[in-house]
Amino acid sequence: MAEEVASARIARSESAFWHLMKRLFRNKAAVFGLVIIMLMFLCAIAAPLIATHDYAKQDLPSMLQSPSRAHLFGTDEFGRDIFSRVIYGSRVSLKVGFLAVGISLFAGLLLGSIAGYYGRILDSAICALVDIALAFPMTLLAIAIIAILGPGLFNVCLAIALSSWGSFARITRGQFLSLKSQEFIEAAKILGYSDLRIILRHILPNSLAPLVVLTTLEVPKAIIVEATLSFLGLGIQPPLPSWGSIMSSGRSFLFDAPWITVFPGLMIILIVMGFNLFGDALRDTLDPRLRN
Amino acid sequence: MSEILLQLQDLRVYFSATSGTFGKKQYIRAVDGIDLEVKAGEVLGLVGESGCGKSTLGRAIVRLVEALGESKVYYRGIDVLSFDKRQLKEFRKKAQMVFQDPFGSLNPRLTVGDTIEEVLIVHERSIKLERKHKVEKLMDAVGLAKHFRNRYPHELSGGQRQRVVIARALAIDPEFLICDEPVSALDVSIRAQIINLFEELQKRFNLTYLFISHDMSVVRHISTRVAVMYLGKIVEIAETDTLFDTPLHPYTQALLEAIPDVLEDRDIRRRILEGDVPSPLHPPEGCRFHPRCFMAKERCSIEEPPLIKKGINHFVACHYA
Ligand SMILES: Nc1ncnc2c1ncn2[C@@H]1O[C@H](COP(=O)(O)OP(=O)(O)O)[C@@H](O)[C@H]1O
Ligand code: SF4
Ligand SMILES: [Mg+2]
Prior knowledge:
The structure holds two protein chains of two kinds.
Chain A: H1 2-9, H2 13-26, H3 28-45, H4 47-50, H5 82-118, H6 120-135, H7 138-149, H8 153-180, H9 183-190, H10 195-203, H11 208-231, H12 243-250, H13 259-286
Helix pairs in contact in A: 3-5, 3-13, 5-6, 5-8, 5-11, 5-13, 6-8, 7-8, 8-11, 9-10, 11-12, 11-13, 12-13
Chain B: E1 4-16, E2 27-39, E3 43-47, H1 54-61, E4 72-75, E5 78-79, H2 85-92, E6 95-98, H3 112-123, H4 128-141, H5 158-171, E7 176-180, H6 188-204, E8 208-212, H7 216-222, E9 225-230, E10 233-239, H8 240-245, H9 250-258, E11 308-311, E12 314-316
Parallel strand pairs in B: 3-8, 3-9, 6-7, 7-8
Antiparallel strand pairs in B: 1-2, 1-4, 4-5, 9-10, 10-12, 11-12
The structure holds adenosine-5'-diphosphate, iron/sulfur cluster (SF4) and magnesium ion.
Iron/sulfur cluster binds at residues 249-250, 287, 289-290, 293, 295-296, 300, 305, 318-320 of chain B.
């Protein structure tokens, strides 16, 4: 049959996926970003193996030493090894980055789906909430929330999520609105499928691309907010090392011992750059229309 | 006389079209007072230019769009518009719809097998093996080979996709199928195949069709009766042969003129349809067809012609037919 011959020529869907991957990996920035992200994960997972010292152990005689063979990134005012603290700090950053964005994603998906699917008053109410949440600068809102909830890793995540779920809700809603009028959704309705089935099986799986992109772009933002909060003493509490709190402790020794601030600062720049490079490339590959 | 399956009384669907926040509220009168009966076992063709409200009519029957308050839709004598959610689900097991765009009608992330099987999962208590057999039977009924089971929509041609859509609609075991231009988006070369499939399935499963199309020759081929629609209203309805042999409404005559081969040897002046269809926002006063009608007289722009009987099973809405 002529029809069959024609369809045989069309690529199979797995090969469409590989085609996408190939295009993504031809992009040097994407590969560079991904390598950075993977190195960061490696640091976090293998921290006990990579660290040369106990990150919390004080050694006052060797305080404020400059980088050397014994202390690769030098020591702080308590003689703690900066290299080991920075390596362990990657755990905090990644944990907060993914946990906070995970919470945002969940809340955004839930509220965005409801707004987009049911419309009317629910939509207006949720959109108003989103506008309010997005109107505040993320860091400022997070500081206000920490002031209420108190510091700590989980509260930091919650604070970040509360200020960033709006973007996820907005994108989800947009996806729902454009998919809702498609004929396969109408077909699903006439076939008597439940709302939950239509949302979970027919709309959401077709809305993922921009959400994946947004996730990779929101993680670095969350990492920066965490570092900022910790720098201000509102985030991760000692002795747990966060890049932000390490930098904060180096503030008073900026001229005598710049290595305390420089190395965690470099790590923040590196991880944020990694996620942004990868996220941008992913967006361009998945959906060129999203480029602004 | 066979039983009346579906009956529409004064069916109206208006869409609001407000321009700007403080703009005047206006209505697109997509379907504007339609009375129609569909008999069990027949294929009722519905023709008319694009934008005249055919799809909206079909969608209102299965309640994808809401009809205006006084409208009535009776299915086997029961009022469809008063159904609650559960009754609506039951009704939709009897009445299904096939859309125009076979690509848009399929979830791009589900395989052919999953697409058809989902209907069975939702509506039947059957084990996986039974479902597998039933999916195969349905695919066979619409002429899809077994190996298409694991294919995705983008791997199929338009004709194959429409076969999947038909199989999915049949999975629910309906008695009434609304076919909304099911072949218009397909290659001309495969239209005939799909039309034949519709005919074959209609006989085999004892189905009733409301077959919507803007293509007169398709409608002539498949329908037992034909209704002609213009700007939200039915202007003529008759058995297929009657309508094509002795069209009474000037609009029907003009539509027939537009197809090659029909009326060729007859002594009817060529009546090419001129101008565009007026906007359903402001349908013309009197007879809606009068700005384009070659027979229009003064009365036509003042008084709206009712649909009246002009022959056996032949109804026309024109003052001078
Ligand atoms: N959801 C909708 N909202 C607003 N206007 C609509 C909607 N659906 C259809 N219309 C309008 O109603 C009229 C009839 O459309 P439709 O039923 O699709 O016609 P057809 O199927 O005969 O081409 C058109 O003017 C169209 O623009
Ligand atoms: S009523 Fe008048 S305008 Fe309308 S179709 Fe008949 S002749 Fe034409
Ligand atoms: Mg249509």
